[in-house]
Amino acid sequence: MLAMNYRGPYRVRADHKPDPVIEHPGDAIVRVTRACICGSDLHLYHGLVPDTRVGHTFGHEFIGVVEEVGSSVQNLKVGDKVLVPFNIFCGSCTLCQHELYGNCHNTNAQSTAVGAIYGYSHTAGGYDGGQAEYVRVPMADVGPMVIPDDIHDDDAVLLTDALPTGYQAAEMGDIEEGDTVVVFGAGPVGIFAAKSAWLMGAGRVIVVDEVEYRLEFVKRYAQCEVVNFKEVKDMALHIKKMTDWVGADVCIDAVGCEAAGNTMQTITGVYTMMQAGSATVLHWCINSVRKGGNVSIVGVYGPTFNAVPIGNALNKGLTLRMNQASVRRHLPRLIEHIRAGRIDPKQIITHRVPLEEVSDAYHIFSSKLDNCIKTILVPPRANEVRAVKASVQH
């Protein structure tokens, strides 16, 4: 099959790999029809995630058609069109029973630090991802969801990560009616966090970034105020000035380890890797939020440490919440929002690229060329109608 193949930092290509096979009775094989490049894929692409191995296939945002199922799969059948949450989870451990699917204890040997994620290095389990023609889907009875007939495929693929993660970012902010919410990052997750903040009762939403075309987009899409941090000398002081010198009620980090805006953080966090990524936005969140306020973190950081002003967080009495999104938990509510017209996820899609041109797609997205916000990769067999295979018994 054709699949994205990681060759080292800033080097990926489309390559031929063996087709995935059923390895466990609970597996399914899905023929991918759409796969996105996520902002967090760029951390892998830039060589910042530990144990990212040459030959790995990225891609944790994908939908497709079930081609094969293992002997114990009960909830899916061959031919089902499914969306697959980026979390790989068992559904039965204590954490899954509490709907903390991103923290499943059974699907990743490194699970004391992180749950399992498709196509996100061996730190996250070593599972190949969906930027390919086919992908093996473990725990197929609990992860994938059959896509309802009235949900557009472009909306469905954004329900696998970007929209639920933005939604959970707002949820973890514990937004109350009339709150001022500041979202750092105008990428897809930050855009959806801003939109979700309104759904949860915010009275004012401000988005901060440095990329002008993305700020223009989020201003239209999420009806928010915007700030270009390159035009601001002191971010925390600027937010306080905008909020009558009190600070925001809620600050959301939708950027993570490659945040720009502070030279020393970039040197120690990105270039020399002395800490687990640049902590610039963590500083801005903690220092911009009001006393007693809430900081929500969904930006991705590495597994080691970051230098953050934890003393300021303590003395201000802040609540800091963070996690990988529990995608499956949010799907029913988000589908309601889509059906009601309160949110239209597919509007953020700007580029559709054949899987064969995956190298160009990563370059465009990474370099923020051509006003790129969200890229969909389309495998060559995406629209193929094939005779379905019989279930495979193992």
Stretches where pLDDT is under 50 for at least 5 consecutive residues are: 387-394
Let me know the number of strands: 17
Instruction: Count up the helices.
Output: 12
- Report the oligomer: single chain
The largest β sheet comes out as: 7 strands, mixed
- Tell me the structural class: alpha/beta
Cα gyration radius (Å): 20 Å
Q: What value does the average pLDDT take?
A: 94
Helix content: 25-40%
Shape: globular
How far the N terminus sits from the C terminus, by CA atoms, comes to 22 Å
* Helix and strand sequence: EEEHEEEHEEEHHEHEHEHEHHEHEHEHE
How much of the sequence lies in strands comes to: 15-25%
List the helices and strands and how they pair.
Elements: E1 2-8, E2 11-16, E3 28-37, H1 39-45, E4 62-69, E5 81-84, E6 87-88, H2 94-97, E7 116-117, E8 134-137, E9 145-146, H3 153-158, H4 162-172, E10 180-184, H5 188-199, E11 204-209, H6 212-221, E12 225-228, H7 235-242, E13 248-253, H8 263-271, H9 280-288, E14 289-297, H10 310-316, E15 319-322, H11 327-339, E16 351-354, H12 358-366, E17 375-378
Parallel strand pairs: 10-11, 10-13, 11-12, 13-14, 14-15, 16-17
Antiparallel strand pairs: 1-2, 3-4, 3-8, 3-17, 4-5, 5-9, 6-7
